[in-house]
Design goal:
Elements lengths: L5 E5 L4 E6 L10 H15 L6 E6 L10 H8 L3 H19 L5 E5 L2 E3 L1 H8 L2 E5 L3 E3 L13 H19 L3 E2 H7 L4 E3 L4 H13 L3 H13 L7 H15 L2 H11 L6 H5 L2
Parallel strand pairs: 2-3, 3-4, 4-6, 5-7, 6-9
Antiparallel strand pairs: 1-2, 7-8
Helix pairs in contact: 1-3, 2-10, 3-4, 3-9, 4-5
């Protein structure tokens, strides 16, 4: 892939680079980006000799969560369309989470909402010292339902309960402390740090790596059975269509504080 919302390159070593490519909106995801990410994952699953996947964001930011203008448009669509969108988003993160090869996320700038889910789904996360994180969905009357399992695995339920309930932002060092990032490096050294991790991975037996990851996932929150996956998708879609989400998204569009009290009186 040479253009579009997601770029894919696989080098001669079998190392793939997946680059989120909507820098004009801080790589916020919309329907096109989700479908392009799923297509990239499809292509990787067909790639022989694949050894590792590096996930990056083009521009100043890694991934700024959902494109809220797009989310607001989806919100008024049918319940079936909302479920379809939530399912596609959940599948993109979960397929990345369950990939049989090691995945490495290189995070710079903003990593908000769904971006934290992408990071949590990766095996290794290296953050630049300018990285800023937030599990921000509650700010807009939404929930992080479809990425909660991956975040529980990455930062523990205890930390998830704080940061998913407050929606507050936290920096790279705090992300490292709670387990969302493994390492923090200067921004100028981010790519080099990623290359170093990939070098370590390539020294190891591919089958041993695949088996080790599969064994680790056997006891992970993110290894959902189909019924539980469907339940999270449907809850995510239903919340998007709620009056509270309507107010939260309106507050974003109108650049004002949300009037949650008005929602309760409706």
């Amino acid at each position: 892939m040479t253009n579009g919302p997601v770029l894919l390159n696989v080098d001669e070593r079998g190392v793939a680079t997946v680059t989120l490519n909507r820098p004009e909106v801080n790589n916020a995801y919309n329907g096109d980006l989700i479908q392009a990410l799923l297509a990239a994952i499809d292509a990787l699953e067909r790639t022989t000799g694949l050894r590792a996947v590096v996930v990056k964001g083009n521009g100043r930011h890694f991934q700024a969560g959902a494109d809220l203008k797009w989310i607001d448009a989806v919100r008024t669509a049918s319940p079936e369309e909302n479920v379809r969108v939530s399912r596609a988003t959940a599948e993109a993160v979960q397929r990345l989470n369950l990939a049989p090869v090691p995945t490495v996320a290189l995070v710079q700038g903003g990593c908000f909402g769904g971006g934290t889910g992408v990071a949590a789904a990766c095996d290794v996360v290296i953050a630049a010292d300018n990285a800023m994180f937030s599990i921000a969905e509650v700010r807009w009357g939404l929930t992080a339902a479809i990425i909660i399992p991956q975040l529980n695995d990455a930062i523990s339920v205890r930390q998830m309960r704080r940061y998913a309930l407050t929606g507050e932002r936290f920096g790279a060092e705090e992300a490292r402390r709670i387990g969302l990032a493994h390492e923090v490096v200067p921004l100028a050294e981010l790519d080099a740090a990623g290359a170093r991790i990939v070098g370590h991975l390539l020294e190891n037996g591919p089958q041993a790596i695949a088996e080790t990851k599969a064994l680790a996932l056997q006891s992970a929150w993110g290894r959902l059975d189909p019924a539980e996956f469907t339940r999270l998708v449907e809850a995510h879609a239903a919340r998007r269509r709620s009056p509270e989400a309507a107010e939260g998204l309106a507050s974003f569009a109108e650049k004002r504080a949300a009037r949650w009290g008005d929602v309760k009186r409706r």
